[in-house]
Design brief:
The protein is of the alpha/beta class. It has a single domain, classed as TIM Barrel (Alpha-Beta Barrel). The chain has 13 helices and 10 strands. It has an 8-stranded parallel beta barrel. Strands 1-2 form a two-stranded antiparallel ribbon. Helix 10 crosses helix 11. It binds NADP nicotinamide-adenine-dinucleotide phosphate. The site of NADP nicotinamide-adenine-dinucleotide phosphate (NAP) has 25 residues, from strand 10 and helix 12. NADP nicotinamide-adenine-dinucleotide phosphate (NAP) binds next to strand 10 and helix 12.
Length: 336
């Protein structure tokens, strides 16, 4: 698999990253191990998890199942050195009883109020927990999972910098963060000589967010512009196929993941991607992954999250989808 440089660090990661969020909960161990084996055998290196994956999968879960599974897989295979291992802290939640209540599903409004945050103590114990679960002495990329405005950035940055100087973390990233915060983070890091983030992990796909959306997680035009001007930050795009909604209208109908994208240009974008997919002989989900892989400014590392081996195979095959300059132009222009 081809690689791309992480920011301007000189470190290269595979251009398609594998999300492990569902591994150990929704996706069973045998399937997860097979997916990991195949991904590495295909030359993939970039694995993504978080300390909180995936508490919401089932009542009684405390999160950490994905990292534990990765720890077992790394021990079994001995392939730690082949992997660029990314995890995250600050997004675990407290008071799970209140979040679940008596309902069959967790209440995300309560959950979002209950993030542990990016204070020094929280981050330190989060990182120690991640290292223990993954049975490793360092992570390659450590993200602040959910930007935390209640904790002084100085406290968070100084703590993260200490992780780097202690050799427990190699590179830093931030996720679910607004552009003005990113700029402040970088300025503070520069002023104090602290390690600056080299990756930003945001929700990003082919459909464009609708106007007026209150959401600091989905890339907007300003963030794209900022990233174009700052290529020392790599955009890692999570939910790149928006939970697989591109392939069929029936799957899109009423799907919660569509809501942020229900703008006036959505139909034109969906039609364009279906048209291009039919022309090049792939599925619309694959065409979206291919479109992301073809982006050069900013460069994008799509972070796919297959639940099954079949979904994994479909996602990986997008690496072979070539889009002509004309097709890319048509996709870019759709709904403009
Ligand atoms: N930083 C953050 O806050 C954040 C948030 C979310 C995710 N992430 C990371 O990003 C990774 C990917 O995110 P994601 O899981 O949201 O990405 P995604 O790939 O857009 O969505 C995964 C879902 O899409 C569907 N799918 C996948 N391949 C498909 C295919 N070939 N055809 C049809 N449907 C398909 C499946 O839905 P069904 O299960 O319904 O079949 C699957 O569960 C995660 O593993 C995690 O590492 C980070």
């Amino acid at each position: 698999m081809k690689t791309t440089e992480l920011g301007r660090t000189g470190e290269h990661v595979s251009r398609l990253a594998l999300g492990c969020m569902q591994m150990g909960t929704t996706t069973d161990e045998t399937t997860s191990f097979a997916m990991l084996d195949r991904y590495l055998d295909a030359g993939g290196t970039f694995l993504d998890t978080a300390d909180c994956y995936a508490w919401w999968s089932t009542r009684g879960s405390n999160g950490g199942e994905s990292e534990e599974l990765l720890g077992r897989w790394l021990t079994r295979t001995g392939r730690r050195e082949e992997v660029f291992l990314a995890t995250k802290g600050s997004g675990m939640v407290h008071d799970l009883d209140a979040i679940w209540g008596d309902a069959p599903e967790p209440d995300w409004t309560v959950a979002r109020r209950n993030y542990d945050g990016a204070g020094a103590g929280v981050l330190r114990s989060a990182l120690e927990g991640s290292l223990r679960r993954m049975r490793t002495d360092h992570v390659d990329l450590y993200y602040v999972h959910v930007d935390d405005r209640a904790t002084p950035l100085e406290e968070t940055l100084e703590t993260l910098h200490a992780f780097v100087t202690e050799g427990k973390v190699r590179f830093l990233g931030w996720s679910n963060v607004r552009t003005w915060r990113l700029e402040r983070i970088r300025q503070l890091a520069d002023r104090h000589g602290w390690t600056a983030p080299v990756a930003v992990q945001q929700q990003h796909s082919y459909l464009r967010r609708r106007a007026g959306l209150e959401n600091g997680s989905i890339v907007d035009d300003e963030q794209l512009d900022y990233l174009r001007a700052h290529d020392d930050l790599t955009l890692v795009a999570y939910s790149p196929i928006t939970k697989g909604i591109y392939d069929s209208a029936a799957r899109r109908e009423g799907h919660w993941a569509m809501e942020p994208y229900l703008g006036p240009d959505a139909d034109a974008r969906l039609a364009a991607v279906a048209e291009v997919a039919a022309e090049v002989g792939c599925t619309p989900n694959q065409a979206v992954l291919a479109w992301l892989l073809h982006q050069t400014s900013p460069r994008v590392v799509p972070l796919m999250g297959p639940r099954t081996l079949e979904q994994y195979q479909v996602g990986m095959a997008a690496l072979d989808v070539e889009l002509s300059a004309e097709a890319l132009h048509r996709l870019d222009a759709a709904g403009a």
